[in-house]
Fold:
Amino acid sequence: MSKVASALGGARFDGFASVSEIGPLGMITLRAKPDVKGLAAAVKAVTGTKLPAQRRVERAGDKVAAWMSPDEYLLILPYAEVKAALATLADKLAGQHHLAVDVSDARAVFRIEGAEAAQVLMKLAPADLTALEPGEIRRTRIAQVAGAFWADETGFTLVCFRSVAGYVMGLLSHSAQPGSELF
Amino acid sequence: MLLLECPYCGVKAEETELTAGGEAHLKRFGPGSSGEEFEAYMFARKNPKGVHFERWRHAYGCGKWFLAARCTATLEVFGTYPAQTTEPPADLVEKIKAKRPDWKGTK
Ligand SMILES: [Zn+2]
Structure:
């Protein structure tokens, strides 16, 4: 098996906030309506979390379940566990209308950390960062490309497509330039 | 700047997170219809100055189509609602009538 590499090899920039590319992370797109029988149990079996409600991100250790749309969830887990997780989902949701796909290699993931981390994103996304609640995911536009982010105690996790990882790293680094704080 | 709340996400999305889809509640005329009907379906649009019903797609979000009622002259947004309907919700129509007494309604 070939060696797994993240999009930018763990690139890092330290400005008024720190930006780092993390991963590789395991990611599964799970499409199913919330009333699908056994869905909550299937998600719990894979991530250890409850089924996220509208716009919510549920965390359990290093695993995450995020609400992406009324019939889509994003499950994040260690890269090596994806295959087993897909088998678990197929087993728990057998016969139910759903779709579970490994999208780990289609994505890039960043961490933006520091007291002023929110300002890095305020410059790049047309989203109201002051209205973003802890544990709330915001899918939006990061300058010219699609992305999604959510906050935790130490900063933000941002997900985008792997094909634009270099562009997004450039955006985040430029936005975090020392001296360019908004307030 | 135009902010529309996606009825599926509850996100107040900014115009550039959305894709505009033109006039809402068009009745399709396909095979078997007259030339005049098909031409009107394809090309004729109300294009009013005032109350307008529109299709929008939450392109940088859930990806779903929804509908919005807004004023093309003032950009006032009266409301948004899911696309699984052939006409605007009654409560939204009432709300618009209260704000725009001169408005002739959707018919
Ligand atoms: Zn939406």
